[in-house]
Write a structure and sequence with these properties.
alpha+beta; Peroxidase, domain 1; 2 domains; 4-stranded mixed sheet; 64% helix; 14% strand
């Protein structure tokens, strides 16, 4: 829980700075690209996060990464701050929370739709359009496949879950039969 609070504090700080500089989208993109790149090279991320390596070595590693990425000076200072304060291990959570703040600012709701079969782009777009009408926000869904749902859809957006799967309906029928109602 403390990790999430720390990550949120840094994400909010960067978000506020991004708003003041009118660069919230750019900051989000740069952080997202850097984080995705670090996921491809987990040994570099482990070195930055490890308490074994001294801060000056971590700073050298970060400088090499930043030469390759050429990020905004504010993002560069932010990343250096994370290394100095030994908070770089929260980078993934910070990026996730920053994206959530950005989505809220732009009126975007992100979620996932789970189906028994792959949804076409057209089906996903149609579903996003219908949810946009309900939520009064732009909706972006990530489609996932789970054959165990048998049929129907399960949609998760934030705290909301719409479960219209055949599996859940069968479970409800089972409970009704067992209870004898």
């Amino acid at each position: 829980m403390r990790a999430l609070a720390t990550a949120l504090k840094y994400a909010k700080g960067l978000f506020i700075a991004g708003k003041e500089l009118n660069k919230v989208k750019e900051f989000g993109e740069e952080l997202k690209n850097l984080t995705e790149w670090l996921k491809e090279y987990p040994e570099i991320l482990r070195a930055l996060q490890s308490p074994i390596y001294p801060p000056d070595l971590k700073m050298e590693i970060l400088q090499e990464i930043l030469k390759y990425f050429r990020v905004d000076p504010e993002i560069e200072r932010f990343l250096k701050l994370l290394v100095e304060r030994r908070r770089i291990q929260f980078l993934e959570e910070i990026v996730s929370m920053y994206q959530a703040l950005l989505d809220e600012e732009l009126g975007i709701a992100r979620g996932e739709v789970i189906a028994a079969y792959p949804l076409s782009d057209e089906e996903r777009k149609e579903l996003e359009g219908a949810l946009k009408e309900i939520l009064k926000k732009e909706v972006i869904l990530e489609a996932k496949v789970d054959p165990e749902v048998i049929g129907g859809l399960k949609i998760k957006i934030g705290d909301y879950v719409w479960d219209g799967t055949l599996k859940s309906q069968l479970e409800k029928f089972k409970e009704i039969i067992i209870k004898g109602v």
